[in-house]
Amino acid sequence: MEHMLKTKSLSSCFLLALLVLIPFAIAETHYHEFIVQRKPVKRLCKVHNIITVNGQFPGPTLEVRNGDSLVIKVVNAVRYNVSLHWHGIKQLRNPWADGPEFVTQCSIKPGGSYTYRFTIEDQEGTLWWHAHSRWLRATVYGALIIYPKMGSYYPFLMPKREASVLLGEWFDRDPMSVLRQALFSGAAPNVSDAYTINGQPGDFYRCSKKETVRFGVNSGETILLRIVNSGLNQELFFSVANHPLTVVAVDASYTKPFKTNVIMIGPGQTTDVLLTANQPPAHYYMAATAYNTAMNAAFDNTTTTAILQYNNNYQQQQKPILAQLPFFNDTPTSTRFTSQLRSLNRANVPTQIDESLLFTVGLGLINCTNPNSPRCQGPNGTRFAASINNNSFVFPKSNSIMQAFYQGIPGVFTTDFPPVPPLQFDYTGNVSRGLWQPGRGTKTFRLRYGSSVQIVLQDTSIVTTEDHPMHLHGYHFYVVGSGFGNFNSATDPARFNLVDPPLRNTIGTPPGGWVAIRFVADNPGAWLMHCHIDSHLAWGLAMVFLVENGEGEMQSVLPPPPDLPPC
């Protein structure tokens, strides 16, 4: 499958140069219709009738500029309830457009529709969109690219070409059936059967070689790759054979450039890299494979590939040149990569903290009265669970949290989410079995508008230590520090980077360690925070922040739209 990289032509560069003279840029409004529908797709020798948007897999790429607005009518033509999330968009004062079902809206029912309306405000780079209703996002996702305003430029030399590289997971059966079976049995879900690049598994899988994605490039060109991990459950290593990558942005935030041979990218994260075609003309593999940190856990230990194909005239070798990837459990390589990330400029990091929170994140086990029964197929006859601060989150069924919050409807949620673990223990040590079973509830935590917040996300060794990619809706945050072992509030803050920490919307907890983030709660609404490993989300690894209105209209939530889906 030939994948054309977008070319920045001389005429478009000339046009951009002329537009520098324009004293202001006119924002546009982009209108789209997304029809969620089934489409027969053949992968791994089998045809599956998968859920798509507009019959495309991956879904349509949205291309806008900073300051533009989007109006996207979503029509649900499948039998499942659906909602869509615009991952990384801040949605200022507009939680109604955020998308997670039963948090900011009720789902779009079969045959129904809902129009998401939102504006891009002071954001540029690579984001993405995906279904936020159970495991529909296995195939319902696409890129969301935000270009600089007219007359503005990238903070690096304009690449000759650019392309989106969407990494995914393919299941050789209906992903919703995989989820249903796991939730019924209490066991871990079956792992994926393949990884994909732009929807194709690549050369190393059966019946896939003819459709392997190819990226054409001319010798000497520098291209921009916009890499998205849109997989359900797996962090990934990514590399291009013999071609160093220069990282220039993560999660739609520019970074100080640095070179690397491999990136680690968790579900939900994006990474922009520059690649210079300075090798002998040939075919070179792009490749992605698992980074897996959970002990004794099954995972998809395969490798997806695409081909970087030089367009010059040359005699092609028999096989593309292989990319060198780390071992699946190479945490030092992952840590080395993430520790190099720095914001491009000096950051405005909150220093006077109003809310200092410590969240333990991890798995758990629910004891069964009838162990090893059909509904208790987890370890030692239990059921898997997951929690933050020992609370396994329960999504409402009859209303959304945001609607209840806005309308003052009681009984949908509580506001007693604990700011610290209810019981302190050696989080990464040998944890007593009596602490493995979490409580359950729809618990939220209130934040005053404008308050400065620090959260330390602490992994635990309950069941297993693991890297949990944690995503906060409605916000970007500064990643000010991280480490292994238990966070020490007396000594660790002295090592925080308060000068140029990276700005992200999704960050992984080092396995058996902690990560500290900071942000200002200046976006009112109900905002979900959760692990972007979807099996963990289904088990309850989530919570919700309720950010109160500030003073006046510009610090208050917008009224709900008239077509908000009924509950």
CATH class of the largest domain: Mainly Beta
CATH H-level homologous superfamily name of the largest domain? Cupredoxins -  blue copper proteins
The tally of strands reads 34
> Helix count?
5
Low-confidence stretches: 7-23
What CATH architecture of the largest domain do you see? Sandwich
- Amino- and carboxy-terminal Cα gap: 43 Å
Organism: Cucurbita maxima
Cofactor: Cu cation
Subcellular location: Secreted, Extracellular space, Apoplast
EC number: 1.10.3.2
What does this structure look like?
Strands 2, 11, 12, 14, 16, 17 and 19 form a 7-stranded mixed beta sheet that branches. This protein has helices spanning 10-19, 175-185, 331-339, 401-407, 534-539, and strands at 2-3, 6-7, 29-43, 46-53, 62-65, 69-76, 84-87, 113-119, 125-131, 141-147, 161-170, 194-197, 214-217, 222-229, 235-240, 245-250, 253-260, 263-265, 270-276, 283-291, 303-310, 355-366, 383-388, 391-393, 439-441, 444-447, 452-459, 469-472, 477-484, 503-504, 506-508, 513-520, 525-531, 542-547. It has 3 domains: 29-147, Immunoglobulin-like; 161-339, Immunoglobulin-like, CATH 2.60.40; 355-555, Immunoglobulin-like, CATH 2.60.40.420. The two termini are 43 Å apart. Helix content is 8%, strand content 37%. By secondary structure, it is mainly β.
Summarize the helices and strands and which ones pair or pack.
Blueprint: E1 2-3, E2 6-7, H1 10-19, E3 29-43, E4 46-53, E5 62-65, E6 69-76, E7 84-87, E8 113-119, E9 125-131, E10 141-147, E11 161-170, H2 175-185, E12 194-197, E13 214-217, E14 222-229, E15 235-240, E16 245-250, E17 253-260, E18 263-265, E19 270-276, E20 283-291, E21 303-310, H3 331-339, E22 355-366, E23 383-388, E24 391-393, H4 401-407, E25 439-441, E26 444-447, E27 452-459, E28 469-472, E29 477-484, E30 503-504, E31 506-508, E32 513-520, E33 525-531, H5 534-539, E34 542-547
Parallel strand pairs: 1-13, 3-6, 5-10, 11-14, 13-21, 22-27, 24-25, 26-34
Antiparallel strand pairs: 2-11, 3-4, 6-8, 7-9, 9-10, 11-12, 14-19, 15-18, 15-20, 16-17, 16-19, 20-21, 22-23, 27-32, 28-31, 28-33, 29-30, 29-32, 33-34
